[in-house]
Specification:
Layout: H1 4-17, E1 22-27, H2 34-43, H3 57-61, H4 63-66, E2 72-79, E3 92-93, H5 102-121, E4 126-129, H6 137-143, E5 148-149, E6 155-156, E7 164-171, H7 190-194, E8 200-202, E9 205-206, H8 212-218, E10 234-236, H9 240-243, H10 263-267, H11 270-274, H12 278-284, H13 294-308
Parallel strand pairs: 3-10
Antiparallel strand pairs: 1-2, 2-7, 4-7, 5-6, 8-9
Helix pairs in contact: 1-5
């Protein structure tokens, strides 16, 4: 193998073999269009208490500052859309957190992919990223043609909607680069109209500090009373803007066994969640992303919702 096209084809085939839904490749370079957007978002305090978003501004916009000698950003999508969802009479958990914490699942796949690249192509160096470093995942995925950024600020694909994780391999290998796709939101405002807290302040702009996902996961203090009766029964995360998006009618259930939920997660009623103990929390969410809120955080969210009923 000795050409950029062959290397790129090998990486995409290998990604598919590992269970990734899509793979796109873009040149590792400064994200010019994103710089003013990120600056404005931060200056208007739309990140709320997520102080970490203010760190590593340069690295967020330039992967060559993050990974020495990097030439390419390989963006990957992994489906998490479940075949079954929670009972209707329940406090809700975002679908991405149903099974094993995606960080572990995807990191393992990315390590395998990098190892395969090294075995096949040779001396290639790079780093794997899953939503835990200063990398603008959605911007890179859009740049590499995997979808467009929708009005709710999530990545959207005509073929698969938006229920998938985004991850990257940033490597020091020059490859064939994909091109962005066009925006297909049109005049639709379903996500803006449906957002329970009006967090989508205008098309393509989200006030993170008003988002239910932020309030139930990132916010460490008490949820402000102003959000009373606006939480739509979400106790961890929120899927409203995705659930109402017409493109998600094309979502198909994932085939990753590690993303299957603990059976109790799907059947618990509101009253059972209200009686949640530390032991049951530890059992149901043993390897789950829900552990991020800790038992006390989830109880805080449940108590807030219970006070609304």
């Amino acid at each position: 193998m000795n050409t950029k096209a062959q290397y790129s084809a090998f990486i995409k085939n290998e990604a598919k073999r590992l269970g990734f839904m899509s793979c796109g490749i873009s040149k590792a370079e400064f994200l010019e269009a994103e710089a003013p957007r990120l600056e404005e978002w931060l200056s208007k305090n739309r990140h709320g208490e997520m102080q970490y978003m203010e760190n590593y501004f340069d690295k967020r916009l330039d992967p060559t500052k993050l990974v020495e000698g990097s030439k390419s950003v390989v963006s990957l999508l992994l489906n998490y859309y479940p075949s079954e969802t929670q009972t209707k009479e329940s406090y809700k958990i975002s679908k991405y957190a149903y099974g094993t914490d995606y960080h572990f699942v995807i990191k393992d796949k990315l390590k395998t992919l990098l190892h395969s690249i090294q075995e096949e192509i040779g001396d290639v160096h790079g780093r794997a990223f899953v939503d835990s470093a200063p990398v603008l995942d959605k911007a890179w995925a859009a740049k590499s043609g995997l979808g467009w950024i929708g009005k709710h600020s999530n990545l959207l694909s005509k073929q698969a909607g938006s229920f998938y994780f985004i991850a990257e391999l940033i490597i020091d290998l020059e490859l064939d680069y994909d091109t962005p796709v066009t925006d297909h939101c049109g005049t639709c405002t379903a996500c803006i109209d449906a957002c329970p807290t009006q967090a989508i302040i205008e098309p393509y702009k989200v006030d993170g500090s008003k988002c239910i996902s932020y309030l139930t996961i990132e916010l460490k203090n008490e949820i402000p009373n102003g959000f009373s009766n606006q939480m739509d029964d979400w106790m961890f995360g929120c899927d409203v803007c995705q659930d109402v998006c017409p493109w998600n009618r094309f979502s198909k259930p994932h085939n990753e066994p590690l993303f299957n939920p603990h059976p109790e997660l799907l059947t618990k009623s509101k009253s059972e969640w209200q009686e949640l103990t530390k032991e049951v929390f530890a059992e149901i969410f043993k390897k789950s992303a829900v552990k991020r809120t800790k038992f006390t955080g989830l109880k805080r969210n449940i108590n807030f919702l219970n006070s609304e009923d």
